[in-house]
Write a structure and sequence with these properties.
Length: 410
């Protein structure tokens, strides 16, 4: 009895998880599980060069299937054992009503019958056949259903693989678009930062030169005022002298007083005033271009958002708003300007909502960087040229091109 139990346990170790029979040509895959060679080969059909383990669902390569010689030897030894030791004792089922063994199968009711049941009034006029015949008939039906389910399994596995590949492709496209947008806007922000630094330097230079002219003008005017006051004080003092002393050299003194002329230099250099006026005109043009560009971006953005959400399922729209709510607004992501950076910059009208450093002209050395943004290569983009996103991108490029031309104009 102990030997039979040991044999039964050995048999449990060499049962194929797919066909539930003793392993035939045992083979092991990379995850460590073993199956009949034919069973595991059938399970891979439709999956090209990969196999999914039926037990742990791990994907392994087909060429990793290898014979398990240890199990081959073990199976051979078990099969060589005495049949009485090989099979465990099976408790024979008997009719609960009559206590007899089952010998027949009722095709009408689908029940197993003993001899007494077969002759009873309940089954007397039913179609009954021997159990062995019924088992043989149903064995074919079961096998047919197994094959049908196996085909469905293969189709589902193939469909699952194709679906996962499609999703992976779309996710790669999403990541590509994310990188593209990040790169383009980083280029634009860097160009604007460079222009801000240059334009503030130019404004500071104008302020510095105007301060020099002011100091020079005030110094010249003050020196002449001092000379005038000395001459005036000299005449007042002569009035208080006795007649003889007052009249001494009176004509040259009066001539010098009458000939005094205030040399009025220009308060500011004509060149500086001209450059300041040119800068102001260009700034006004740039502010208008930026305002139009901002309004267009905002209007197109609202339309694009409406088109994007139109037709989506409610759960998609809900997840969109939750994500939008959790993300900071673009204004919150900008680093605050240092007070020292724009101490000389004049504030813009509040409705413009632009950095005070933006209403300036672009310097020549960074126009190339702006141009490179405007004409940014889109060769790697897989976006349909007729899609709303592509149209918006072209409108953005056109607006920036117009902006750049306005900046370059004298």
């Amino acid at each position: 009895m102990a030997g039979q139990q040991f044999t039964n346990k050995l048999q449990e170790e060499v049962i194929c998880p797919i066909c539930m029979d003793i392993l035939q040509d045992p083979a092991t895959i990379d995850c460590g599980h073993s199956f009949c060679l034919q069973c595991i080969m059938r399970s891979r059909e439709g999956l090209d060069s990969v196999i999914k383990c039926p037990l742990c669902n791990k994907i392994v390569k087909r060429d990793t299937i290898r014979p398990n010689w240890l199990l081959v030897n073990l199976v051979e030894k078990i099969q060589a054992m005495d049949p009485s030791e090989e099979q465990p004792e099976v408790k024979e089922l008997k009719c609960p009503k009559h206590g007899e063994r089952f010998h027949y199968f009722c095709e009408s009711d689908g029940k197993v019958l003993c001899v007494a049941c077969c002759g009873s009034k309940d089954h007397k006029f039913h179609n009954t056949i021997l159990l062995e015949e019924a088992a043989q008939s149903f064995q074919g039906q079961i096998q047919s259903q197994v094959e049908a389910l196996l085909q469905k399994e293969r189709a589902i596995v193939q469909m699952k693989l194709q679906g996962d590949q499609r999703i992976t492709t779309l996710m790669a496209q999403v990541e590509q678009e994310k990188q593209k947008i990040s790169t383009v806007f980083e280029q634009l922000l860097q160009a604007l930062k460079e222009e801000k630094n240059f334009l503030l330097s130019r404004i500071n230079w104008l302020d510095q030169e105007l301060t020099k002219d002011r100091n020079s003008y005030l110094a010249s005017a003050e020196a002449q005022l001092q000379s005038l006051r000395k001459l005036k004080d000299s005449l007042k003092a002569r009035q208080l002298l006795p007649p003889r002393e007052m009249l001494q050299d009176i004509k040259p003194v009066l001539s010098r007083s009458a000939g005094f002329r205030f040399l009025s230099p220009p308060p500011v250099s004509a060149d500086l005033e001209k450059k300041l006026n040119e800068t102001k005109l260009r700034h006004e043009s740039l502010i208008e271009s930026l305002k139009k560009f901002q309004d267009k971006c905002q209007a197109d953005g609202k339309k694009d958002k409406s088109r994007f959400l139109k037709g989506l399922d409610k759960h998609y729209i809900k997840s969109w708003y939750l994500l939008e709510k959790s993300n900071p607004t673009p204004m919150e992501t900008l680093e605050p300007e240092s007070p020292s950076d724009d101490r000389n910059a004049k504030p813009l009208p509040p409705k413009l909502k632009l950095s005070p450093s933006l209403p300036n002209l672009f310097r020549s050395r960074s126009r190339a960087s702006i141009a490179s943004f405007v004409f940014y290569s889109n060769e790697d983009s897989s976006e349909d040229p007729g899609s709303p996103g592509a149209a918006w991108t072209e409108e953005l490029k056109a607006a920036l091109s117009e902006w750049l031309r306005a900046i370059k104009s004298p």
